Amino acid sequence: MILTRNRIRIGRAPRSIAAILGAMMAMLLTATPAYSQDAGDRRFDEYTWLTTHNSYANYEDARWSHVMQSHSIVRQLDNGVRGLMLDAHWFAGSGDALCAISLGTDCYGPGVYMCHGSCSGGAGFSYALPRRTLTETLNEIGQWLQENPTEIVTIFLEDRTSDGQLINPIVMADKALPLIFDPESDDWYVQARGWPPLLWMRQNNKRLVIFTSEYQNRSFLARARNDYAVENTFDLGALGQDIACESRNNVPLDKTEANWNRLFIMNHFRRTPTPAGAAIDNQFDKLNSRVFDKCLSAAGKLPNYVAVDYYELGDAKLVVDHMNRTRQLP
């Protein structure tokens, strides 16, 4: 297979800047990405998937004051996102005082919710109203998958739960639960057989893969991310200048296994996201150059997931589609 970082040419160049921007935006917002249209005979690990960092922190699902994404999770999926990063926190409940002070707007029982840092800080920053549970979010994703029967989605949980608190919210997500693919199941044991082809996942309706960041919470519902993937550090620096591709979590990016391939999660965002910064970082030349000049050499393989902030800004989807075309070259 020949790997190339050359920018692809798409037909004849438009004559005006407005035409260029219009053409690129139309391609970016195409609902079904090019890599979903093949026969599915390639393995799951032979694709690259557009992924959103802190997918839940957006303007449309809840009233966040500081976001990492502009669109709702469903809209992200409609626009070609196939990897979702979610922070799952245990919340003991609002309590009578908070419920009263908020004039009834923040009255929630205990459970696992989508929060950033904690579920008890300032509204709009560490959590947003309406508070969204993990079960609600998973069911929304499950409903979308049922309506799009050829698509496959991966969820990465930044897991801040303990004592078995993660299991029940997933079990209660009745629309998502039947779709979960367990890489350690008897149906397809990844560590012995490698990752299944997309065709198998579609035919068996196992089209939702969930990873947790915490070993103590791994189960048939959510496998430990570090058991199946490698990942680079996530901070591009204040000015987006730190583009080296270095390992996170003490798992070498080039770690190999005997019978299967680890998935490669490429994080490409700043510690403090802004639309202006994301628009720069997600530009084709910068992102594509980092993939082929830094991360490919560090990991010995192309990323399976490219995680960005404000996915709709810049050219992240074009870079992902370019990588999938590159994978198909003889």
Commentary on this structure:
The protein is an alpha/beta fold and 330 residues long. The chain has 11 helices and 9 strands. The protein has helices at 17-28, 73-78, 95-101, 134-147, 167-171, 190-193, 198-203, 225-228, 275-281, 284-299, 316-327; strands spanning 49-52, 83-91, 111-114, 153-160, 208-212, 223-224, 229-231, 263-267, 305-308. Strands 1, 2, 3, 4, 5, 6, 7, 8 and 9 form a 9-stranded mixed β-sheet that branches. Helix 2 links the parallel strand 1 (49-52) and strand 2. 43% of the residues are buried. Mean pLDDT is 90; it is low at 6-35.
Number of strands: 9
Residues in β-strands, percent: 5-15%
- The helix tally amounts to 11
Shape: globular
Distance between the termini: 5 Å
Most strands sheet: 9 strands, mixed
pLDDT average, as an integer? Answer: 90
Q: Structural class, please? A: alpha/beta
Low-confidence stretches: 6-35
State the helicity in percent bands: 25-40%
C-alpha-based Rg, rounded:
20 Å
- SSE succession: HEHEHEHEHHHEEHEEHHEH
Short note summarizing the structure:
This protein is of the alpha/beta class and 330 residues long. The protein has eleven helices and nine strands. Helix 2 links the parallel strand 1 and strand 2.
What labels would you give this structure?
single chain; 330 residues; alpha/beta; nine-stranded mixed β-sheet; 11 helices; 9 strands
Please specify the SSE layout and strand pairing.
Elements: H1 17-28, E1 49-52, H2 73-78, E2 83-91, H3 95-101, E3 111-114, H4 134-147, E4 153-160, H5 167-171, H6 190-193, H7 198-203, E5 208-212, E6 223-224, H8 225-228, E7 229-231, E8 263-267, H9 275-281, H10 284-299, E9 305-308, H11 316-327
